[in-house]
Design brief:
By secondary structure, the protein is of the alpha/beta class. It contains 9 helices and 5 strands. Strands 1, 2, 3, 4 and 5 form a 5-stranded parallel β-sheet that branches. Helix 1 (14-31) packs across helix 9 (181-194) and helix 8 (173-179) crosses helix 9.
Amino acid sequence: MNNPPIVAPIVEGHGEVAAVRQLITRIGEKLGIFIEVAQPFRLDSGKMRRREELDKAVRLQEVRVRGRVGGVLIVRDGDDDDLQCPVELARQIAPESGAFSVPVEVVIAFHEYEAWFLAAAESLRCHPSVRSDATAPPNPESKRNAKKQLELMMNESYKETLHQAKFSSLIDLDVAAKNSRSFRRMMHAVEKLAS
């Protein structure tokens, strides 16, 4: 029996460690592919912005993938003050072609991972922490501080380590993709690594 494709993520936040596993698994299910998700490697935002630190993390995750279909997926927030374009930011942090023995995809959540929740806010209403009138804003990626906007739709304070994985397991992937360009990129990156 062939091994399933494997995706080895690198993330910034503590909450994203569990959340990205949920998200990749769900995207795989939507594609009709079982994807093995390796333990995410957490690299704090300061280190994520240093080439040598990011390359070291990619090398560590590369070992988990080598010899199999799959690759390394770098997911980070696009909250840099000096760069407003997530595509340009992804280009800047992407490793040079051929630098690693496995494919590496970069996804920039614009401006934050939580903007993906805002993009499909209605689908979170079934969670007891989310108000029944939660509605996606017209352009969920247009404003900074998605966490605060999300919290305004909740009955309690938003905590990444408590809510991020749960919300990742609930959001409507199609609606999030329709309303968020960076989420479409996330889905495309996972599909690319898994095929």
